[in-house]
TrEMBL record:
Gene3D superfamilies reported for this sequence: Acid Proteases
Keyword presence, rRNA-binding: no
Biological process, per Gene Ontology: proteolysis
Molecular function terms, GO-annotated: aspartic-type endopeptidase activity
Entry keyword set: Aspartyl protease, Glycoprotein, Hydrolase, Protease, Signal
PANTHER family documented for this protein: OS07G0603500 PROTEIN-RELATED (PTHR47967), PEPTIDASE A1 DOMAIN-CONTAINING PROTEIN (PTHR47967:SF18)
Domain Peptidase A1: 100-454
Catalytic residues (UniProt): 118, 333
Family affiliation: Belongs to the peptidase A1 family.
UniProt name for this protein: Predicted protein
Length: 471
């Protein structure tokens, strides 16, 4: 009996400590296997950022340009943790370039918003307006610094609450301040000059299960999620806000983990750029990667808790294996398009592929990429057969095979380029980007400290909706 009482007391302490950061209460649909939402590429016809005037190769080239900006931002954050800027603290995500979005429903009754889904940052923040004169928000509002798009009005929700300055959640913010009302205010500055500020709050989030993604049309409601109610945003448009999917305590993943039926895990399956279908973003038990050929590698602890970092050991083409330099961390990031590797790997990789691929050489547009071929005289469908697999060796003995669609992209009509670039002083950290992750089921498990990769036909993970359908 005394032992039972001690166990119950310890369990109660654990529950109380968890509730101090996030009092999440998830009401999971039947089966309790988690939920899936649509993962929308920014260039998809389903995205508010879709530019119908661009050709498919032009969209890839634009993504490559954004990729260099984001890679530089991630790298700077990784090598200079918590480095202050001239304007104050620069958050972990030091640039706003992004590649994927997701729909969230916030409040009671819910307001539907489409926000950046970012695996390189933690804080959830959404654009807010305020129709009333309540404390905190009315004083913080800046009508001249509001972006277009949907704005959440907390005065119309029965479940909205402001967060106190002495809360654990407030202490997790990189830069926070207190007003006379003792409510927690946050400020985030980004490397491209963008800036968001507002009030840390809690609200109920509702996620509609993706049709066809093993769901039955049910919804998942999560109460008391900490998020930044953004009353000021200055900079380039970023949709209706941002949902952090990183490894830090304020991310959606960590907050969902407060409910033990879901755990701190998520996965996605990215369709190739050329496929007119959406990808699926999965949470909870549904995020388990059990597909044939799955390989698992351990996460490396980092001071930048938002980043998912694994060990890069080698790159192999055919029977040629090139060893990575000692201590080669690799950031797994869905928001970076290209893959960035040490020059000691990229140079022999380029040389080996040049000798194996029997295609005429071509000039890289804007010299962004190290190896390009002229495929204007090759029939569609034949190019992939001419490109050898590339195997990336990771920590724990995991080996991830990259097919042609993971290593080469058409960046202009008739020009096919290697979607891998060398690290430099500008990009000192290695990154495996989303092209390399296409047609893979990639699962992140923060509780186990692992990332799992498996080949998959991602177009079947989510139905192909009509482009005119609402996102």
């Amino acid at each position: 009996m005394p032992g039972t009482m001690v166990s119950r007391a310890l369990l109660l302490v654990g529950v109380v400590l968890t509730a101090q950061l996030c009092a999440c209460t998830a009401y999971v649909g039947s089966g309790g296997d988690g939920f899936s939402v649509e993962f929308i590429h920014r260039d998809s016809a389903r995205s508010p950022f879709h530019d119908p005037s661009l050709t498919a190769p032009a969209r890839v080239l634009e993504a490559a340009r954004r990729s260099t900006v984001r890679a530089a931002a991630l790298s700077r954050s990784y090598v200079r943790v918590d480095a202050p800027s001239a304007d104050g603290f620069v958050s972990e995500l030091t640039s706003t370039p992004f590649e994927y979005l997701m729909a969230v429903n916030i409040g009671t009754p819910p307001t539907r918003m489409v926000a950046i889904a970012d695996t390189g940052s933690d804080l959830i923040w959404l654009n807010c307006s305020y129709g009333g004169d309540g404390p905190g928000l009315a004083a913080a509002r800046d009508a001249d610094a509001q972006p277009p798009g949907v704005q959440f009005d907390p005065s119309k929700s029965t479940t909205f609450r402001l967060v106190d300055c002495d809360s654990v959640a407030c202490s997790e913010l990189p830069e926070a301040s207190c007003g006379a009302d003792s409510k927690c205010r946050y400020s985030y500055s980004y490397g491209d000059g963008s800036h968001t500020s507002g009030v840390l709050s809690t609200e109920t989030f509702t996620f509609a299960d993706a049709p066809g993604a093993r769901g039955d049309g049910t919804t998942t409601r999560v109460a008391n999620v900490n998020f930044g109610c953004s009353t000021t945003f200055v900079g380039s448009s970023v949709g209706d806000g941002l949902v952090g999917l990183g490894g830090g305590d304020l991310s959606l993943v960590s907050q969902l983990g407060a409910d033990t039926s879901l755990g701190r895990r998520f996965s996605y399956c990215l369709v190739p750029y050329s496929v007119k279908a959406s990808s699926a973003l999965n949470f909870g038990p549904r995020a388990a990667v059990t597909d044939p050929g799955a390989v698992t590698t351990p996460l490396i602890p980092s001071q930048v808790k938002a980043y998912y970092i694994v060990e890069l050991r080698s790159v192999k083409v055919g029977n040629k294996t090139f060893e990575a330099p000692d201590r080669s961390p690799l950031i797994v990031d869905s928001g970076t398009t290209l893959t960035f590797l040490p020059e000691a790997l990229v140079d022999p990789l380029v040389k080996e592929l040049t000798g194996r691929i029997k295609l005429p050489p071509a000039q890289s547009p804007e010299r962004l990429l190290p190896l390009c071929f002229d495929v204007s005289g090759v029939r569609e469908g034949q190019v992939a057969a001419m490109i050898p697999d590339v195997t990336v060796g990771l920590g724990g003995g995991a080996a991830v095979t990259l097919k042609a669609e993971n290593t080469f992209v058409e960046v202009q009509e008739g020009t096919l380029c290697l979607a891998v670039s060398a690290m430099s002083e500008q990009f000192p950290a290695s990154i495996i980007g989303n092209i390399a992750q296409q047609n893979m089921h990639v699962g992140y498990d923060l509780d186990k400290g692992t990332v799992t990769f498996a080949p998959a036909a991602c177009a079947s993970s989510y139905p192909a909706p009509s482009p005119s359908a609402s996102v």
